[in-house]
Design brief:
Pfam families: GH43_C2 (PF17851), Glyco_hydro_43 (PF04616). This is Glycoside hydrolase 43 family protein. Belongs to the glycosyl hydrolase 43 family. Keywords: Glycosidase, Hydrolase. The protein is mainly β. Helix content is 1%, strand content 44%. The chain has one helix at 10-16, and strands spanning 42-46, 49-53, 59-60, 62-68, 75-81, 107-111, 114-121, 126-132, 141-145, 153-156, 162-166, 171-175, 189-192, 203-215, 218-227, 233-239, 247-252, 258-264, 270-277, 283-293, 296-299, 341-343, 351-352, 360-363, 378-381, 386-394, 402-409, 413-421, 424-432, 438-445, 449-457, 464-470, 477-484, 496-503, 510-519. It has two domains: 10-299, 5 Propeller (Tachylectin-2, Chain A), CATH 2.115.10.20; 341-519, Sandwich (Jelly Rolls). The radius of gyration is 23 Å and the shape is globular. The strands form seven sheets. It has an eight-stranded antiparallel β-sheet, with no helix packed on it.
């Protein structure tokens, strides 16, 4: 391979997270190329630009599109949909929610001048195909049909037929109608009865996450599987015809890095994009070199992670994937930058960046029981190895029973904020690490503006977080319990910073967030 890849260093990994280093030192193990939750990635190259889609499930807007010139530095350019549907799960109605659901693994294609992004949802029971002539600006046209085809891969064959390969274990192929309205009758067929077989017979997670491509006249299908007692593993199959017969091989089995496919550059060099479960920060992408040997792609160093892997210089995740926001807007600015996503479907008449210019206003519109069921929580990714989020809140107009503040969002959560009661206000901590949320601190206050900060430490998978408050925005005091962050399947997402406001007694109260400032620096622990 060329010198594009020679050594993955700790210096590179830290730079990816926003810390620029001048001296590269070998890391004890390879770090992600993007140290944040960007799972189920699908990728294409158009000219000299790479585009990537990913899963954000219950977050909205959804199905993010990112672009890069070098496979390392990524920038959000848009979302494919604003909301996926309108039902109780997606709207957090009653005790229902879409945590870990919503929309899952996407497929991304460019064909005859049109971009195609697909996804599927058990929450709505549909398969979605979105089309646009402009991947960065849209608009996107939705085509949807039932049923929901699990972990599918869209594929345009040379004969003009349109296919989807999908399912877990028994990989199934269907042909789609030319207008993308659904599946052509009598076209469903199982093309690989046991796609997990290259990884053995004792399988915990059956092969899924299909990614289909064609190279030098042959078809290649990539899947992730998980042998029982082993690690996430990438398997691959190839065939002369899309209907088979297919022959399989183990593609990559090292460090649990798996699920993805291949992409080439303009020079004809090939790379594999995969992700890894990286603790509570989420599922993080890796890029590996690929060479073709006897008609098979060889990922990494003969199927293992290379000892040395050189990556282009990183500019960090700020401002491409996460960013600070002072909430000041020009008339030409969007109401919210792309780095923000709502937890579930938003209620658009209960938030504003214009009611009080320079502030994000969140107004309560219903009674909620806890922060996980609260509407209009605005979120951004956390990232590694360390990340910090801070905010200032004007709490003047909170009502009795209101809670507002800064959240670290996952099933095991913690937040610091203000509780309003009939007798006054207090800074409190909501600790959701156990079966029930407990109030871990209570400090009465008598002022309009308070400041909060949350620090996350993902270094060597420490997965610890700490909360702070300030009365002047300068001197910070630790508060509450250490949050032992944990990646849980019910939420299926890395931790996120969240700004929230919800009511437990009376609606109509509101808070004004002056800013949200994100950084790769955290407070040193003594």
């Amino acid at each position: 391979m060329n010198t594009f890849f020679k050594c993955l260093t700790l210096g590179v990994g830290l730079a990816v997270a926003g810390i620029q280093t001048s001296v590269a030192q070998k890391a004890p193990e390879p770090l992600p190329v993007v140290f944040a939750d960007v799972p189920d990635l699908a990728m294409i190259r158009v000219g000299d630009t790479y585009y990537m889609s990913s899963t954000t499930m219950h977050m909205n807007p959804g199905l993010p599109i990112m672009k890069s010139k070098d496979l390392v530095n990524w920038q959000l350019v848009g979302y494919v949909y604003q909301t996926l549907g309108d039902n109780d799960d997606l709207n957090l109605v009653g005790k229902k929610n879409a945590y870990g659901k919503g929309s899952w693994a996407s497929s991304l294609r460019y064909h005859n001048g049109t971009y195609y992004v697909t996804t599927f949802s058990s929450t709505t029971g549909k398969t979605y195909i979105f089309t646009s002539k402009n991947i960065e600006k849209g608009p996107w046209v939705e085509h949807s049909f039932k049923p929901s085809l699990h972990d599918h891969s869209l594929f345009f064959d040379d004969d003009g037929k349109i296919y989807m390969a999908y399912n877990a274990g028994r990989i199934t192929l269907v042909e789609l109608n030319e207008d993308l309205s659904g599946i052509k009758p009598n076209t469903q067929q199982i093309i690989i009865p046991n796609a997990s077989l290259p990884a053995g017979t004792n399988i915990n997670l059956q092969a899924e996450g299909s990614q289909l491509l064609k190279h030098d006249g042959k078809y290649y299908l990539f899947n992730i599987t998980w042998p029982r007692g082993g690690m996430r593993t990438e398997v691959m199959h190839r065939a002369d015809k899309i209907t088979g017969p297919w022959e399989g091989k183990l593609a990559f089995q090292d460090l649990g890095v798996a699920q993805g496919s291949l992409v080439d550059n303009a020079k004809g060099e090939w790379f594999s994009y995969l992700f890894r479960d990286y603790g509570s920060v989420g599922r993080a992408p890796y890029i590996l070199p690929v060479k073709w040997v006897d008609g098979w792609p060889v990922i990494g160093d003969n199927g293992k992670f290379p000892a040395d892997l050189n990556l282009p210089a990183s500019k960090g995740l700020i401002p491409g994937l996460v960013n600070s926001d002072e909430f000041t807007r020009k008339k030409s600015d969007p109401a919210l930058p792309l780095v923000w996503q709502w937890n579930h479907n938003p209620v658009n008449d209960k938030w504003s960046v214009t009611d009080r210019p320079g502030y994000l206003r969140l107004t309560t519109g219903r009674i909620d029981s806890n922060v996980l069921q609260a509407r209009n929580t605005l979120t951004q990714r956390t990232f590694g190895p360390t990340s910090s989020g801070a905010t200032s809140i004007d709490v003047t107009n909170m009502k009795d029973g209101d809670y507002a503040g800064l959240l670290l969002l996952q099933k095991k959560y913690e937040w610091v904020g203000v509780k309003a009661t009939a007798t006054g206000k207090a800074i409190v901590v909501g600790d959701g690490q156990g079966a029930k949320e407990v109030e871990a601190a209570n400090i009465p206050i008598n002022q309009k503006v308070v400041y909060f900060k949350a620090d996350c430490d993902f270094t060597n998978r420490a997965d610890k977080a700490y909360l702070y408050y300030s009365l002047d925005g300068k001197a910070w005091t630790a508060i509450g319990n250490e949050l032992k962050m944990s990646y849980t399947l019910p939420h299926f997402m890395g931790y996120r910073f969240g700004l929230f406001n919800y009511a437990t007694k009376t609606t109509g109260g509101y808070v004004d967030f002056d800013y949200f400032r994100i950084s790769d620096k955290i407070t040193a622990k003594k």
